Amino acid sequence: MKIAITGAGGYIGEYLTEEVLSRGHEVLALARSSLDKNWHNKKKFNLVLIDLLSAVNLDVELQGIDLVIHLAASMSGDKKTQHTHTIQITKNLLDAMNKSNISKLICVSSLSVLDYTLLKPMSTIDERTIINQINDDLGSYALMKRDQEIICQQWQKQENSSLGLVRPGIVYSDKKLSTDHVGFVRKDKCVAVKHSGEVPVVHVKNVVTAIVSLAEKMMQSSNYCTTFHLINDCLPNQKKYIDSLKSIGKLKYVVSIDWRFFSILTSTIRYLFLTFGKKHLIPDSFKRNSVAARFSPFNFDNEETKKLLDWKPISE
Questions:
Q1: 3 DSSP assignment
Q2: What is the spatial distance between Cα 35 and Cα 48, in angstroms, rounded to a whole number?
């Protein structure tokens, strides 16, 4: 199988390229600049330096590709520019795929697109949880990913193609552990928004094994359209997650506030911004869905993904 990977030089992209090659498939890496990894000597690896925003000759480069895995996103400029460019990149890719007769796409999205505002505390989140449709509720990244999903779903229906939507949780590795879902961090000091729910983490190796398993599954069928949530088994609660951050020296001083208090506080702040016509100044972390997603207690389920992909997440 010949797989094209956009954003191959990114954090997940490097691990994904390694996994695809290790399973005996060919890789066409699409990147804006040379990659740090030395894959160039491998027979089944090809690199194309291309700006997906202009996408000059992208359809030509994609000739002979069986499936595309879309990781690329624009991270330069202000938030509005990032959104516009990421959507344009996705449209350019889909257009080039149509011209090259490629009908299979895996789009890597995020759990942040879900609507957490409708859920009761300690609800279980899985693939049946709906996405948030209210723009003002979403932070810029979640809004960008939601709109990207919508474009890909429209393409799948119009072109009668195959689409796998993959929504990883907080991706980590042995060298990288995020402070998301903890609170507000400055250097090694943190104001934690305390709750009793799970933290939806997923090891980067689990992410890439699931994606490649999905790619192999999609090659065996047509008109495929399914969504997958990627999270580890046995998720940590927030206290255990904070302890992990402390153990690696990322956090030293932690002051906690209750999640209910923080929810009321941010709701009041949003009201004041709206009252004085300053809606555009509301920080992403104070947006309604952002607050619920990061700082309200929920449980997360990965049984559907494990069943459909015969996926066995490793414990790290």
A1: E
A2: 10
The 8-class DSSP code of residue 112 comes to G
Q: Give every CB contact of residue 255 below 8 A, 6+ residues apart in sequence.
A: 190, 191, 192
Determine the Cα–Cα distance for residues 256 and 226; give it in Å rounded to an integer.
Answer: 39
Give the number of C-alpha atoms closer than 13 A to the C-alpha of residue 151, restricted to the C-beta side: 22
* Residue 253 in tokens: 């001083």
Residue where the block lists tokens 């956009």: 6
Answer whether 0.85 is exceeded by the pTM.
yes
Residue tagged 């907080």 (tokens): 170
CB 98 within 8 A of CB 118: no
> Torsion angle, CA of 13/214/167/162, rounded to 10 degrees?
110
Residue in this structure with the two tokens 């993904």, named with its chain if needed? 305
- Tens of pLDDT along the chain (316 residues) come to 999 999 998 899 999 999 999 999 999 999 887 776 666 667 899 999 999 999 899 999 999 999 999 999 887 778 888 899 999 999 999 999 999 999 999 999 999 999 999 999 999 999 999 999 999 999 999 999 999 999 999 999 998 899 999 999 999 998 889 998 999 999 999 999 999 999 999 999 999 999 999 999 999 888 889 999 999 999 999 999 999 999 999 999 999 999 999 999 999 999 999 999 999 999 999 999 999 999 999 999 999 999 999 999 987 6
Minimal CA–CA distance to 253: which of 239, 240, 265, 242? Answer: 242
Residue partners of 66: CB distance under 8 A and separation at least 6: 1, 2, 3, 102, 104, 219
